[in-house]
Design a protein that fits this description.
The structure is a homodimer. Chain A is an all-alpha fold and about 200 residues long. Chain A has one domain: Globins (Globin-like, Orthogonal Bundle), CATH 1.10.490. Helix content of chain A is about 60%, strand content about 0%. The first copy, chain A, contains nine helices and two strands. In chain A, β1 (about 75-80) and β2 form a beta hairpin. In chain A, α3 packs antiparallel against α8 and α8 (about 150-165) packs antiparallel against α9. Chain A is globular and about 50 Å long. The interface between A and B is large, with 37 and 37 residues.
């Protein structure tokens, strides 16, 4: 797919991104440990029908969550206060990320962008956003990246419950989201980890 | 609490363990990001009433899960095959870990043992088990530690469903478990992470 020009810094599908050190064979093993199957991919795709019309509301819910947790909010702040433009960039990418997670094409192109997302939480945090991010902390500590899997899952689940009346169908989609988000935070942890230990 | 002498290598409560670099203030911020509250602690304690009588069955389910996933099973294997004694030690500690998670006393003593558990997945993997672990891989890659949160949550949830008929009560306990396990894998990741990046 082509990168959406309306989302600042979005590079999923950009052929100039480096290949991920994580191979599709590594990913297959990770999926096995997560009990992630084709049924999960199908459930993620179904979830898109419910979630994507409400992308802005989901993004707003997450924006509120970040705003009410100082260690998360601080990642957008300079000593002079929060950078509104930087936050706007990040949350625009988050909205696009919801669609990408639902699309569920977990291949080399996707892995390359996952690696870039991980890098952007760590050594590359402020690169993509130029002056908008200047003066904000140089990285997001990993201790906040992993547990964000929970808030993401819980937020998505609340929106699934609003859009689907069958509790079993909600549960199926929510479990697929939980597995996918755990897969992604695991991939994003790669740049943080000591050589050879990931 | 005193370390249970019947569990090989179990050191929760051992006053000679080093203090964790993670403080109780760090833990409180982690709990906030996980939306982990006193209600979760209460739910974990209630879950113990259901789970602990079935500890051996839960351990057996996990043993089967490891056995059917090569990257997990390999962590117990020498070039000559699996070390039965090492597996017996690890799964005895896993059984005790279920009780410790339900007990929910997440204080400095608990943090010290969490740090030790993390270390035992990485640079200290084979130390506690002496000859039983000799010749097995020197560490568990972090890529498998984080996603194990899912199988743990799903396994525990299946046992909660067998022991509690009210779906809302099951859900409450299962969510508390999910948050606690995510908290713990986050703590266990600390030794793997580059200096200052955790």
């Amino acid at each position: 797919m082509a990168a959406a020009p309306s989302v600042p810094g979005y590079r999923y599908g950009d052929p100039t991104l480096p290949r991920s050190p994580v191979t599709t064979e590594d990913l297959a093993q990770l999926e096995a440990v997560l009990l992630f199957t084709d049924d999960d991919l199908a459930a993620l795709r179904r979830s898109g029908d419910i979630l994507l019309p409400h992308t802005q509301a989901i993004v707003d819910a997450f924006y509120g969550f970040f705003g009410s947790h100082a260690p998360l909010h601080d990642t957008f702040c300079t000593p002079q206060g929060p950078s509104q433009e930087y936050q706007a960039h990040v949350f625009a990418r988050f909205g696009q990320w919801i669609a990408d997670t639902c699309r569920g094409q977990y291949d080399d192109t996707w892995l390359a962008y996952q690696q870039e997302i991980g890098r952007r939480h760590y050594t590359g945090k402020n690169e993509a956003d130029g002056p908008a991010a200047a003066g904000t902390p140089p990285f997001v500590p990993l201790r906040y990246v992993i547990p964000l899997a929970y808030a993401t899952y819980a937020t998505v689940r609340a929106f699934l419950e609003k859009g689907e009346t069958d509790p079993a169908a909600v549960e199926r989609m929510a479990q697929a989201w939980l597995k996918s988000v755990l897969m992604q935070v695991t991939l994003w942890s790669q740049p943080y980890v000591r050589d050879g230990a990931w």
